[in-house]
Design brief:
The complex is a heterodimer of chains A (180) and B (182). Chain A is mainly α and 180 residues long. In chain A, 68% of the residues lie in helices and 2% in strands. Chain A contains four helices and two strands, in the order H-H-H-E-E-H. In chain B, 27% of the residues are buried.
């Protein structure tokens, strides 16, 4: 059994993490801005990042399905293993579902998503104000659910690293520390 | 008497072939603007059009179209709230946009081009609007699309002048159904 995630899995993990840590605060910030060119620009950037996360998530899940991750440490209690897997599974689901909900919300609000201002995505829904408002609530709620899961995920990784002092965090770090 | 009958004949033949009653239910004026590369559809809920056209001789036709800018739906509540402001349409000073045709030329089968003056926000510029004209079941249907450059009319000034966010070109689409007088 491999001790580390593959380089590809590590790259995808951190790339998606970086994009989420950009899109999430951007989403909260842009929402309350007064109507302005800057607001329109930030909305577009937010959507472009979302589409990018979605595409990377598909690559990541494909990779995950075809490459077995390293096993969890034997020392972990079975409830801990279950919790870790549940959080992982939920996060995998959310990096697909959240961009989808944003895309659908944008369509329902009457704005097509054009990735990077170049590639138009099809509108799966036609303009519908009630549905648009509902999808906004869905998009927002899913994001706060993800925030909770990310905190649990990061908290768990840090607990393993600093308290259990096992290799859980280092096996996902881009810079591998040689074991002495 | 002879003169009168000739006049009557002229009058009746003119009215017989002239279509001049706009069916507002089956007419529309819409537009597409581009924000960050995203086409955004908009429309005008209130407009009037004095169109007089003889389908046998559309070149003699004329059109005078007035659009109530306060009835504009630009695609989102936020945009609609903003559009009346001075940097956009300044609808307090200029509530109506107008197009008045000056010349209609034939460009092909059922295809024509209207030359005319467009007035928006107090500024009048010459525009060309190509359109098709078809006689369908007792009415005349006119369809056309033409671009305008918003900044030529001072629409969206100040921070909004940045065309990398809201493109300069706006495509206006018109669809008029014109019937005979009742």
């Amino acid at each position: 059994m491999a001790e580390h995630y593959t380089r590809t899995a590590i790259l995808l993990h951190w790339l998606i993490a970086l994009l989420i840590f950009t899109a999430f605060p951007l989403g909260i910030y842009m929402h309350d801005l007064p109507f302005s060119p800057d607001k329109l620009r930030l909305y577009s950037w937010h959507k472009w990042i979302g589409v990018s996360i979605f595409l990377l998530a598909i690559v990541r899940l494909t990779w995950r399905a075809t490459h077995r991750p390293p096993a969890l440490p034997e020392a972990m209690a079975s409830w801990e293993k279950f919790a870790a897997r549940a959080v992982h599974f939920s996060l995998y689901a959310l990096i697909i579902i959240i961009p989808l909900s944003g895309w659908l919300m944008s369509s329902a609000k009457g704005f097509q998503t054009v990735w990077l201002g170049v590639l138009p995505l099809p509108d799966l829904l036609s303009k519908n104000k009630e549905l648009g408002d509902l999808l906004k609530e869905v998009h927002e709620s899913l994001n706060f659910l993800m925030l909770g899961l990310v905190l649990a995920h990061v908290g768990g990784a840090l607990k393993h690293h600093f308290i259990e002092r096992d290799s859980i965090l280092s096996r996902m770090l881009p810079m591998r520390r040689k074991k002495s | 008497m002879k003169l009168l009958s000739v006049l009557l004949l002229c009058f009746s033949s003119a009215t017989a072939e002239e279509f001049n009653t706009l069916n507002t239910q089956q007419s529309s004026v819409t537009f597409v603007s581009k924000q960050m590369g995203v086409p955004v559809a908009g429309s005008f809920k209130k407009f009037s059009a004095d169109i007089a056209v003889n389908p046998a001789k559309p070149e003699t036709g004329s059109a005078r179209i007035s659009i109530d800018l306060n009835s504009m739906d630009a695609g989102s509540a936020e945009a609609n709230d903003e559009l009346g402001s001075r940097s956009w349409f300044d609808t307090k000073q200029h509530p109506v946009a107008r197009f008045v045709s000056s010349q209609v030329t034939r460009t092909g089968d059922d295809r024509y081009e209207a030359l005319g003056n467009m007035t928006i926000k107090g500024k009048t510029l010459s525009v060309k609007a190509p359109f098709t004209l078809k006689r369908v079941a007792g009415v005349v249907v006119i369809d056309g699309i033409f671009p305008i450059k918003r900044l030529d009319y001072g629409i969206g000034t100040g921070i909004w002048a940045d065309t990398s966010v809201v493109a300069d070109e706006v495509k206006i689409t018109f669809h008029f159904t014109v019937g005979k007088p009742h």
